[in-house]
Amino acid sequence: MSDKLGRVTLVGGGPGALDLLTLRAWRALQSADVVVADRLGPVEILAELPPHVRVVDVGKEPGRHPVPQERINEILVEHALAGAHVVRLKGGDPFVLGRGGEEVIACAAAGVPVEVVPGVTSAVAVPGLAGIPLTHRGVTTGFHVVSGHCAAGSDGASERSGPLDAAAVACVRDATATLVVLMGVRSLGAIVAQSLAAGADPATPVAIVENGSTAEQRVTRARLDEAAGVAGVRGVRSPAVVVIGRVAAEGLLEGTSERRLAGAGV
């Protein structure tokens, strides 16, 4: 352990595009001794770090977590106790399904000072970049963000009939708010089945935005009852953000979908 106590900065890197990294985040990265980086987010910035900075890759992929969260927490603490300024570079925002809270708790328990730099969350930014407003006057005034992962034993998830909790199911069934699903590509079929079984309208619009904010961004649209099949045919892959609700209708911002919805009495 060093006589000089280091510190940890949790940095939200945004959805992926380098120019969506905030100025505060960039400054933290430039002053880092160690950067502990995820697979997602603005990974291009790693090539622009000062030469002395050590980069530790802890990136997770769907179904493959080579570095468990507990070990990531230990890495942050170990380097900080050795006197380093450790930047934990995460995609999106650290506190939006990013497990940033767990990392703050681990640092606090070890007596390590920790700062959080908010990031542009993909839950909002990715749909926006695809021309999908999560709220729109006359359509919906709220949105609900959930993870597509269903962790058994967590928050009663093992007792659910699918990946969504009751509030998320109600969003889709009652069309009370837009539902945004992060990390939901693998569970899309189960999400569709659960929503339909709860009584959701099969014609509810769905949009899936892959690789949002990057040159590889692609949008796939379908009805709720056809979404999983269409995604399979198109080869939809993560990272992707799934948007379910009337705002996902094609042509909404041109007014065409609004006229169709009004004509249908929705």
UniProtKB/TrEMBL annotation:
Tetrapyrrole methylase domain residues: 7-227
Listed EC numbers: 2.1.1.107
Keyword Transferase among UniProt keywords: yes
GO biological process, one term: methylation
Methyltransferase is among the record's keywords: yes
SUPFAM superfamilies in alphabetical order: Tetrapyrrole methylase (SSF53790)
Keywords: Methyltransferase, Porphyrin biosynthesis, S-adenosyl-L-methionine, Transferase
Source organism, top-level taxon: Bacteria
A molecular function GO annotation: uroporphyrin-III C-methyltransferase activity
Catalytic class of the enzyme: transferase
UniProt-recorded name of the protein: uroporphyrinogen-III C-methyltransferase
Species of provenance: Promicromonospora alba
Taxonomic classification: Bacteria, Bacillati, Actinomycetota, Actinomycetes, Micrococcales
Gene for this chain: cobA
